[in-house]
Design brief:
By secondary structure, the chain is an all-alpha fold. The chain contains eight helices and no strands. Helix 1 runs antiparallel to helix 7 and helix 3 runs antiparallel to helix 4. The longest helix is centred in the N-terminal third of the chain and has 33 residues, at about 1-35.
Length: about 210
């Protein structure tokens, strides 16, 4: 009985630690993304793309995210949640790199959109899985509120920081800073052991439901 009680206490402490690591990762990545995401439509327009082009870009981005999300969920069950989360970092950096050199190398907008969608899916699916596992059922409401509030807080401060950096220095410096923060955001979750999510996906059943 005593050993069971100690095990329960250790499990609670472990989950609280993992939740704090998750919050820190979410804060860093949200800050990095918010430093530039609000300026992407304007950037595309300045680079010579038309308004319909920009709208199509976001349509492809959203559709691709929907398609890639279940595939990412399956990936977490194969290689682990933390490993999937780690993969999102270089993909996110690749997305901003493509954005940076978009017109210089004539990169198609659809390629940029699909890369962005992959970066989103590879981060948000495992981070939600990790949150569901690390959270405490008794405090689910307050923890969920914090999980939602963190990106909103980043949205308030980060765009101003991004604008100041671009105005004072250049987009290249902003890209470098965003890349470093994105890499830093992967460190806290990786301090805890990885695990594979229990997800099974039947495409035949999914197709039947859609028909």
């Amino acid at each position: 009985m005593h050993e069971h009680s100690n095990f329960h206490i250790d499990e609670i402490i472990k989950r609280k630690k993992e939740l704090k690591e998750l919050y820190l990762s979410l804060l860093l990545r949200s800050f990095a993304i918010s430093m530039i995401s609000i300026f992407v439509p304007v950037y595309l327009l300045i680079e010579g793309f038309s308004l319909p082009d920009v709208l199509i870009f976001y349509i492809i981005l959203n559709i691709a995210t929907i398609i890639l999300s279940p595939l990412t969920a399956i990936l977490t069950s194969k290689i682990g949640v933390k490993h999937t989360l780690f993969i999102s970092a270089p993909i996110t950096i690749l997305y901003f790199g493509l954005l940076h050199f978009l017109t210089e190398f004539n990169i198609p907008l659809y390629a940029l959109a699909i890369t962005g969608a992959l970066a989103v899916a590879l981060y948000w699916i495992p981070i939600h899985s990790d949150f569901a596992r690390s959270g405490d059922k008794k405090h689910r409401g307050s923890q969920s509120a914090t999980f939602i509030l963190i990106p909103r807080m980043a949205d308030i401060v980060a765009p101003l920081a991004g604008a100041i950096i671009v105005e004072t220095y250049s987009f290249s410096i902003l890209f470098a800073i965003i890349s470093l923060i994105t890499i830093g955001a992967m460190i806290p979750p990786l301090r805890s052991s990885d695990y594979k999510s229990k997800i099974s996906w039947d495409w035949k059943k999914f197709a039947k439901k859609k028909i």
